[in-house]
Amino acid sequence: MISIIITAFKEANTIGKAIESIQNNNLKDYEILVICPDDETRDVALKFKNIKYFKDPGKGKPSALNLAFKTAKGDILVLTDGDVFVDNNSINNLLKQFENDNVGAISGHPMSINSKNNMFGFWAYLLTNVAHDLRSKGNNFVCSGYLMAIRQGLIESIPENSLVDDAVISNLILDKGLSIAYAPEAIVSVKYPNNFNDWIKQKIRSSGGYYQLKEFTKSNTKMKRSFLSESSGVFSIFKYITNFKEFLFTLALILARFYLWFRIFYDIKIRRKDFSKIWKRIESTK
Fold first, then answer.
1. What is the reported pTM?
2. Contacts of 276 (CB under 8 A, 6+ apart)
3. CA–CA gap between residue 104 and residue 180 (Å, rounded)
4. Looking at residue 63, which CATH number applies to its domain?
5. What is the 3-class SS of 57-112, one letter each residue?
6. Looking at residue 46, what DSSP letter applies?
7. How many degrees, rounded to 5, is the angle at CA 161 between CA 156 and CA 162?
8. Contact, 72 vs 5, CB < 8 A?
9. How far apart are alpha carbons 173 and 167 in whole angstroms?
10. CB atoms < 10 A from the CB of 276, how many?
11. Residue 40 parent element (H or E)
12. In the chain, what is the greatest distance between 2 CA atoms, to the nearest angstrom?
C-alpha cells in the first residue's frame, strides 16, 4: 500500500487540483492523507472521495509530517504539497526506483510553470535545471520536498523547527546507510516566486536551513551548502543562456545570490535570529 501525504496551509485554491493530479496516476492500492490547519483547505479536500483528513496543529510543516509518519499505513510514503501538481505517471515512476533494496528515498523532478520570459521565471527555470543536472549525476543530493518518496519506518519524526525538512529527511536516510535515487520522469509542476521580496524570503528559509543540519543529523557534511560551495560552480549556470536578455537575468541572479548569503550570514551568525522567525509564507507561489 502507498500512503500519499499532502501537507498544506491556506491552499484552498490549489488543493483540489493537487488531489486530482494524484488521482490521475491510476494507482491501485493507496491512501491520500491531507494534513492542514485551516478549514478552507480542509473543506475543499473533503469534497474528494477517499480522503483521510488530519488536523494540523498549526506548528509548521515538520509537525504535520510527524503526524503523518505516525498515522500513514502504507509501506511507501509519498510526500508532496497542496500547491504543486504531479504528472499522470509521476508516482509510478517514483515507485520503480524501490526495486533496489538499498534505496531509502527517491526524489521527484520539480519543473517550473513560471514563464521564463521574465527575470524571476528565468531564475526558476535555471535553478530547477541546475538541480536536475546535479541529481542526474547520481551523487548524494537532497530529495525535493515538492515530491519525494521514502520507505515507511525509516523516519519516525523530524525536529519541528526544521526549515528544510527535505534536507533533514534526506540526511537521516543517508545516516542509515541507504542511498537516495532520482526519478527524472516523476515530474511535479511548481509555481515559484514572482517578485524579489518573496524570492529572498523563500531562499533565506531554504538555504539558511542548512545551518541546522549539524544539529539534526550525522551526515550533514555530505550535503554541505554554503556561499563557497555555491560560488565554485557559478560559471556552470551560463550554459543555460540562449540570448542576451537571459545573460542579464543570470548576472542579476548572481548578485541576488551574493545578497542572499550575506542576509543568511547576518541573520543567523550576527543577529542569531531564531529559526522559527525565518519561516515565512510565500504568497506569490500560491
1. 0.91
2. 161
3. 6
4. 3.90.550.10
5. CCCCHHHHHHHHHHHCCCCEEEEEECCCEECCCHHHHHHHHHHCCCEEEEEEEEEE
6. T
7. 70
8. yes
9. 10
10. 11
11. helix 39-45
12. 52
Per-residue pLDDT tens digits for 20-62: 999 999 899 999 999 999 999 999 999 999 999 999 988 889 9
- Per the structure, the complete domain to which residue 220 belongs is given by 2-285
User: What is the total count of domains within the chain?
Assistant: 1
CA distance 128 to 110: 7
The letter for the amino acid at 106 is I
How far apart are the C-alpha atoms of 77 and 63, rounded to whole Å? 16
Reference 203, options 222, 182, 185, 225; nearest CA is 225
Q: What is the DSSP string of 119-158?
A: HHHHHHHHHHHHHHHHHHTTSS-PPPTTEEEEETTS-S--
Lookup result for grid cell 548578485: 255
Helix (H) / strand (E) containing 230: helix 227-231
State pLDDT tens for residues 174-223: 989 999 999 999 999 999 999 999 999 898 887 766 767 776 776 544 55
In single-letter form, the type of residue at position 52 comes to K
Which residues have a Cβ under 8 Å from the Cβ of 231 and sit 6 or more positions away? none
String of b and e for 38-71 (b: at least 16 CB within 10 Å)? eeebbebbeeeeebbebebeeebbbbbbbbbbee
Angle at 169 between CA 114 and CA 70, to 5 degrees: 110
CB-count exposure of residue 105 (10 Å: 0-12, 13-18, 19+): buried
CB 94 within 8 A of CB 106: yes
Cell of 110: 520539480
